[in-house]
Design goal:
The chain has 137 residues and is of the alpha+beta class. The protein has one domain: 2-Layer Sandwich (RNA Cap, Translation Initiation Factor Eif4e). It has 3 helices and 5 strands. Strands 1-3-4-2-5 form a 5-stranded antiparallel sheet. The longest helix is centred in the N-terminal third of the chain and has 16 residues. The termini are far apart.
Length: 137
């Protein structure tokens, strides 16, 4: 019987799929799509690598406001002013009962880095965004 070793994942293929997904998400408006549950964006220059203690700002919004709010957060994320990733729901998120509810999440690399968490909160507030609640994920 031949020695069967697990086949390692094709990391090149995974990276190609992730890049295609990010390209798709970059060209999509949250209110106009339902085929995927989340759209996401990342900084154009990678910063801190997320730890096991990553955290997130959870910003609740509505279908009527999600596109303009997402445009602000997406631009700030890509420019490196926010966390390592931001994402927006294209349907009500878990726990949201209103059909027009949407959620935007801004992830920070480490919830224990209080200075970085405060920096991200300040960057959101500078853009007129009420930060909602913050939690470790």
């Amino acid at each position: 019987m031949a020695d069967s070793k697990p086949v390692p994942p094709n990391l090149d293929l995974i990276q190609i799929v992730q890049q295609a997904r990010m390209l798709h998400d970059a060209q999509t408006t949250p209110s106009q799509i339902s085929g995927v549950y989340w759209l996401e964006c990342k900084p154009s220059s990678p910063g801190q690598t997320p730890t096991a203690r990553a955290g997130e700002w959870r910003i609740e919004t509505t279908l009527a406001e999600v596109d303009s709010l997402w445009a602000i957060i997406k631009q700030a994320t890509e420019a490196g002013f926010l966390g390592y990733k931001s994402k927006v729901s294209t349907a009500p998120a878990h726990g949201q009962t209103q059909t027009d509810a949407r959620l935007i999440v801004v992830r920070t690399y480490d919830a224990d880095d209080t200075a970085d968490v405060a920096r991200v909160e300040a960057a959101l507030r500078e853009r007129g965004i009420q930060t909602g609640r913050y939690e470790q994920i």
